[in-house]
Design a protein that fits this description.
The protein is an alpha/beta fold. It contains 5 helices and 5 strands, in the order βαβαβαβαβα. It has helices at 13-25, 36-45, 62-71, 90-99, 111-126, and strands at residues 5-9, 29-33, 50-54, 81-85, 103-106. Strands 2-1-3-4-5 form a 5-stranded parallel beta sheet, with helices on both faces. β1, α1 (13-25) and β2 form a beta-alpha-beta unit. α3 packs parallel to α4 (90-99). The chain is globular.
């Protein structure tokens, strides 16, 4: 069986590296985007099994990318989305939920916590 494909969009190179290493060790195939515009480009080109977006990115925020994702015809319109954020206010969570975010993870978080969430969402979506 082919590895599950994940798009990871975060403007922080160190965090992308850490998460890519953690997820790749578990057999996931990662595509990295440095900002929201690059993430949108990838999302229009190829299907992913899971999308991980940072809330605050240049070009487009993770919420804006998710709004586009859910509102336009594309191969990832129904793909689960994890939003990583330092924004922990209820209004930020509500905006993310309204945009179609599947899971909201507040920074700082453990890579193992993210891995558990990734595995849960991929298993749930594979059913």
């Amino acid at each position: 069986m082919a590895p599950y494909k994940i798009l990871l969009a975060d403007d922080e190179a160190t965090l992308r590296f850490l998460l890519t290493e953690t997820l790749a060790e578990e057999g996931y195939e990662l595509t990295e985007a440095e900002d929201g515009a690059q993430a949108l480009s990838y999302l229009q080109e190829q299907p992913f099994d899971l999308i991980i977006l940072d809330y605050m990115m240049p070009e487009r925020t993770g919420v804006e990318v998710c709004e586009w994702l859910r509102g336009h015809a594309n191969p990832n319109a129904d793909t689960p989305v994890i939003l990583l954020t330092a924004k922990a206010l209820d209004k930020d969570r509500e905006r993310a939920k309204a945009a179609g975010v599947t899971q909201y993870i507040v920074k700082p978080f453990s890579p193992l916590q993210l891995l558990d969430t990734v595995e849960e969402l991929i298993r749930r979506d594979a059913r």
